[in-house]
Amino acid sequence: MDSWDDIRFFLAVARSGSVRGASVGLGVNHSTVLRRVSNLEAQLGALLFEKLPSGYKLTPAGEEILDLAISMDEDSSLLQTRVFARDQNLTGPLRVALPPSLASELLMPDFAAFTQLHPEIELQIATSYEAVNLTTRQADLAIRLVYDQLTLPPHLFGTRLQDVHRSVYISREFQNRILNNPQCSARWILKEEDGPAPSWAANPDLEIGGPPINVSDMASQLSAVRAGMGVTILPCFVGDLDRSLARVAGSTSKYYGTLWVLTHGETRKTKRVRLFSEFIKARIALYSALLSGEAYIDDASKGSLTK
């Protein structure tokens, strides 16, 4: 074979079932994926995929080499990880994966502090609500909101940090409008992936009227509630820090998940990974009350949030 790297492109299409999904996952364009898969097919002298309306399906030849290709990919990742783990310098790249809201609404000032302390480290911040694969070094360290500890991959090394709670929020302007007009009702603002509002969020003092407003992401959810379009459920570290929002009167906070710092067995030996891990764990510990919803002050005139 002229290029073992073509295997990565084959696996990306096999795993995603589409050229588009593979191109997004690999960070290349559509034509590059097609070209590299075609190269592999030419080298092997066999057609590896059948193009169907529903996506790309492995042919018998593709099925036959899939396990071997996965094994090659895992061996390649292990080689890279072990070489990376030998690097004990406080220079070079450090890729950290975490949910977008955690980065933008809470931890970005802490990342800034880390880069000031260690300017030779190239901090790469990868935000996504999808879990990254630490084994294949999609990231060196992940800060993950875990809903069920049993879902954590057993081969990863993790530290359990703080519990995260959420509550029901409304814009202060919309809240005043409701107080001044008893006929005014609110609507739920819901993320599509979350489904209907949970029973714990129901409030007998708040009249809900009309169909919900559905959004696809938290950024739109935040914009909608700030604009006074209704009420919504947010993590306390997001809603309580936003002074344009207030918790709906009588609302409680509810456990949402737990923050974990995760690393791979080999990667965690690297000095800059260990350094960042200890740094961010200490910073997150300072936000314990905020994350658990215990830092909220109902009356904004009494002062700002404590941490």
Structure description:
The chain is α/β, with parallel strands linked by helices. It has two domains: 4-86, Winged helix-like DNA-binding domain superfamily/Winged helix DNA-binding domain (Arc Repressor Mutant, subunit A, Orthogonal Bundle), CATH 1.10.10; 90-307, D-Maltodextrin-Binding Protein, domain 2, CATH 3.40.190. Helices cover 39% and strands 23% of the residues. It contains ten helices and eleven strands. Strands 3, 4, 5, 6, 7, 8, 9, 10 and 11 form a nine-stranded mixed sheet that branches. Helix 1 (6-16) packs across helix 2 and helix 2 (19-26) packs across helix 3 (30-44). The N and C termini lie far apart (58 Å).
**Approximately what portion of the residues adopt beta-strand conformation?**
15-25%
Class computed from helices, strands and strand pairing: alpha/beta
Question: What is the class of the largest domain in the CATH system?
Answer: Alpha Beta
* Radius of gyration, CA atoms, in whole angstroms: 24 Å
Low-confidence stretches: 300-307
CATH architecture of the largest domain: 3-Layer(aba) Sandwich
Largest sheet: number of strands, sense, barrel closure: 9 strands, mixed
Mean pLDDT score, rounded? 86
Span between termini: 58 Å
User: What's the CATH topology label of the largest domain?
Assistant: D-Maltodextrin-Binding Protein, domain 2
Helicity level: 25-40%
* Order of SSEs: HHHEEHEHEEEHEEHEHEEHH
